[in-house]
Amino acid sequence: MKHAALLQDFEERLNHLTTDAACTVHDLHRALGDAVLRDLQPEWERCEQRRQQNRRAFYLSAEYLVGRAVHNNLMCLGVLEEIRGIFRVHGHSLEDMEQIPDAALGNGGLGRLAACYLDSAATTGVPLDGYGIRYRDGLFRQTIVDGCQREEPDNWQEGGDPWSVRREEESVIVPMGEGDVLAVPYDTPVLGYGNGNVCTLRLWQSESVTRSHSAAQPGEWERAARLSQNLYPDDSTRDGKLLRLKQQYFLCSASMQDMVRRYLRTHGDGLSGFAGACAVQLNDTHPVVAIPELIRILTADYGFSFANARNIAKKTFFYTNHTLLPEALEAWDIDIFRDALPAVFKIVEMLEDSLICELSQREIELPQFTPYKILGGGRVHMANLAVYMCGRVNGVSQIHSGIVKDTLFSHWDALSPGKICNVTNGVTQRRWLKLCNPGLSGLITELCGEGWERELTKIGALRDFAGDRGVLERFGAIKQDNKREFCRYLEQRHDIRLDEHLVFDVQIKRFHEYKRQLLNILSVLDLYFELKDGELPGFVPTAFLFGGKAYPGYVRAKAIIKLIGEVARLVDGEPAVKDMLRVVMAPDYNVSVAEKIIPAAQLSQQISTAGTEASGTGNMKLSLNGAVTVGTYDGANIEIFRDAGSENNYICGARVEELREIADSYDPRILCGKYPRVRRVVDALVDGTLRDDGTGWFQELHASLLEGAPWHRADNYFVLQDFLSYCDTRRRAIADSADSMAFWRKGLLNTAGCGAFSSDRAVLEYAAAIWNVATE
Prior knowledge:
Blueprint (H helix, E strand, L loop, with lengths): L3 H14 L7 H27 L4 E5 L9 H8 L2 H10 L19 H16 L3 E6 L7 E5 L2 E5 L12 E2 L5 E3 L6 E11 L6 E11 L11 H7 L11 H29 L7 H4 E6 L6 H13 L3 H11 E4 L10 E3 H7 L1 H20 L13 E2 L2 E3 H8 L3 E3 L2 H11 L1 H6 L4 E3 L6 H7 L2 H11 L20 H26 L8 E6 L8 H16 L9 E6 L7 H18 L8 E6 L4 H10 L2 E4 L11 H7 L3 E4 L5 H8 L5 E2 L4 H7 L5 H7 L1 H8 L13 H10 L12 H18 L3 H13 L6 H13 L5
């Protein structure tokens, strides 16, 4: 029997536990995790030993949104049903594991992408391991009180963490200005699907170098612990910025020291071949400080000249750009950077001098240096540092990479043609279809055969069944079962009752203005007014479902959450409307909630302002599970429209080139004066229709739409520009859902069109085109 020792070990542990009347779900989880890790250990060690001998890749990321490990690991091992049976025999249920909290190591798509890539590397045999931080509280646990977001510490480790192993003997010391900090690694195995391969996610926990609390200097333990306390510390103050930069340095220094140590342990050649053995991918700008830190290590600890160390770094690092937004490209005030990391800042100054020398040799005139500068305008520009020093720079969708090349980094592209390339993001079909949607997975296997779990393009065969009424009915029945299951979850977990027969219209993602949850909820408000006035006969009853968190200091995003809650209250209190509309905010959105809502979604709202969403992977997951996209011509939407068929989705809003044409002359007040529907929803923010409980938030939202601020135009993300196009397109999509056969056909063809959106494909592209590593 496959993994017989594992099954026997777990059954013996369970026999022992079930004699204890006080046995908790955490005890069961710990017993299962311990049994799996014990079974995995020999193969895990063999994989690491094999990886040491050849060129390998490392992924540096501030986030890893891994979700629960238990079900995914059992699926990869092929023992999910066997373990389920053992639970059942002993009077327990594997579904009890849903009480286990998600590891709070990420916030949005950036962290989930990193997790998908490690999953795909293990499955495809790409030698890739990850480095991150083992946050004690992560981001935060979200509750919704009177429509407002409330943040609470997310102590996800409270019941234990049986899926990681503390490697205290592998600890490293990270130099900090106020004193050294110990970085202790916790290793989590990442399992390949059905192939016995294991990659490693190494997460660093910050601790005091002085192991005895009584012997430590006052505040030493607390200062050390802060570095891995929370994901993205509040950086609205100088102290907060210092903490956030030091946190990034903690990750990068520990990781680079560890890579150097691993290399020397295997090769022992004085690091001359380091770049030939190690490829390091920087997931956005958060880990870019790893570049000068490697140079510092090579020069200070191993006697390399600056020039030699710089050349090694240039061949080691690669950079993924995930955003076009200037505020997300990370530019640190020079005095903060210098105060936090004085030794690293000296390296940055030397890199700036090196850059200027290279620009001069290329006969670029001094006035043209500005866009290239690492140190400019009193700031350290991390994106420029990354592009200068990295061997390749990639965007994450075709449109995004084109904008990066033609606009954001056009000067760099002119300097180094071919350096900027595209690798469209992807998602792992194991977690985001097979695991979370067993009904649809079973249908796909029946119709397309085995193997799509490792080669997603095989699901393209579903197109042959787009005219088969029986298949479409089964597809619709599976969607209905998933809707029923999500309703059960909402009621049991949050006491929210939802009618499963409503159309499920979903927007689930991190709250940010460019993702335009504001456009969504203003559109719902528009529907409310017209239904109340009796102007939409035959409207198909619809539930508008939201999920996502707003960063604690991002007041406007929190105001939008409050607005969603207020529109929900308005709808529920209107007898003429409440049976036609529901507005629901799913609290504490995370991977596990996504695994419930994505299979249930019928309409997927992907409505970022054209040119702002780098890719989006939520759109891929929803389309893969048969949701129909209502979206702008942005990010990966474009590739979904291409592969699934624009006729099977709904495109709305202005395109990038159209917005560029109107950017300088755009005046949203003209739209309010011209279109009563636009004016009505905007006025509702301040005319007493909606209440913000004295926060002033809705007045500020109103001002942001019509007045702007000194640092940006009014309606900076063109919400009102796209409003009518979006509202009318969405209404058409909802109306089309009434023809169930035609609508299920659209959904089936969306699933069939997702073959290119596997993270397996993306990781193999990185391995071949960027990292130059061979599969194992």
